[in-house]
Design brief:
heterodimer, A: 272 residues, 69% helix, B: 268 residues, 11 helices, globular
Chain lengths: 272, 268
Amino acid sequence: MADAPVRARLAAYRRLAGAAVRAQLAYPGSFALQCVGQALAQAGDLVAVLVLFGHITAMAGFATHEVLLMYGIAGIAFGLADGVVGQLDGLPTYIRTGALDALLLRPLSALGQLCASDIALRRLGRIATGLVVLVYALVEADITWTAPRIVLAVTAPLTGAVVLSAVWVVACSVCFWVVEGRELANSVTYGSSMFTAYPLGVFGPWLRRLMGFAVPGAFVAYFPTLALLGKPDPLGLPALLQWSSPVVAALAVLVAGGVWRLALRHYQGTGS
Amino acid sequence: MGGAARMYWLMAVAGFRRWSTYRQAAFAGLVTNIVFGFLRCAVLVTVFEGVSEGSGRVAGYDPAATFMFVWVGQGLINVVLLWGGTELAERVRSGDVAIDLVRPWNLQAALLAEDLGRAAFAVLIRFTVPMAVGLLAFDLRLPSSPLTWAVFAVGTLLAVVVSFGVRFLLNLTAFWLLDWRGTLGVYMAVSAPLAGLIVPIGMFPDWARVAIWCTPFPAMLQAPADLLIERGPAPLLLAHQLGWAVVLLLAGRVVLRRGERTLVVQGG
């Protein structure tokens, strides 16, 4: 596979994404409704948080605004990840129909093409819900603002999106071995959407290990929220973890890249 | 008449057999249902944090009833197909529905029969396995009398009919809309919280509880789950389900008649 110059490759991705966006805007009424649907879907866990706080004053040691802060960061991170890499859920169709072969023949990365040509603009609805809640929580929660915290408030959703995207790529790589594995991937992708919106202490020890660290969900919103609040971890985990999300994100990307390349090497096509 | 009954029975059998062939997909879906079962139990049980040990109840639920509620819900998702489906809508879009309409049957009844067959298979795998996992991992509130299981079976049957009624209407919008993904997206977003999947409706504030029970959504999941944990008067819950089942099936009949008249199949 001959590598085209970086500039030409970027231009190609831009055209793929542009075509996807234009296609999605073809029926504006339906598109607007899809955005509303996504915004409401994201609000599902918000409903849970608000209803539960109608009966309690603290959830695993966190007040309403503190949980909403976590929910907001997690919501934006998930919306971004779902919009960019979420359409990898369609990978089984590419594998079954052999459409993946066409992507592999082009001088661009298959992963890049899959993401660019299926970018899902409707996820803006999810991001909007997360953003509104995050801004509200940042104003209402008692935060002592310092320069590093300002940077963190802006970057935490983006770092979280990188972590979740890496998780998505790894989970969808399973489809190269189990073709009907789309729903299997959902358990960690959509599962993480729910897991990351709540304090880590809500979950039992083995769920924490599985969804918080093996799948690094704790670094999406939980640790950044603790850092923003300057709150000691109720679970007593080291304070250093609170600022370590960017490192974890970088590691997650490396792992995801490795798994994806391994999976692609395993791919043999679907026959004649 | 005997011939017609036999045909609908065969549709149900076909529905059952068709779904029983997707075993890998059923397994993958089960894993997701089970993971979410554990996550939901953890989140919902926080509602008891502020409750003193002795009373131990919120909105009539204690922890054992809450866990049971979560696992029944996870089991029912695929029995009632809470997220909907677009098969009929796609047949309307492609024009294939014209063939369905000229067959000597009642299309709505035939699809309902097929859906009941599908649901029967879902009960065998998609309901039983999450329930078994819940039983092994949690202290669940089990029914005090065997009669409750029978009442629950009736409630589940009605839940499938109500859900079918809603999905049928949703699919029929394809007669008027070129792109129904927007409507389906909104439906998928609201069906889970309104059916009680995310938080039991009893835990909502009063005004929301009343409003939600005015919709058909609780009949799909909250009602059968409450029947099994013996919360609330069973006759009232069944009446709510039956009422919505009748209304939705009648509405589907009327809307299908109108839709048939708008259908234009392109080409030869």
